[in-house]
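call fold(seq) -> tokens
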Amino acid sequence: MRACILGPPASGKSTVAELLCKKYKLHHITIKEVIDETIQKLEQSAARLDQVFRIFIKRFYRVSLLPLTKSCSTVVETRIFLYC
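ret:
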């Protein structure tokens, strides 16, 4: 069963949803929970990516990078500047 309860702020939407879920033994999912969980997963992924990139820079910073285009060279220079 899916239900979407709409109404103005402070009209009791969450209260009604919680009561319906208790009565019919359903899971109550709020948008805030979904957004918070997604943000947490994204932050964890970003932190892991940052760690991997820092390790890469520390190990290979002396390697001569030969970018193919000027835009590639700007990205490489920016990344090295930010992470060193």
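Residues 13-83 form one domain.
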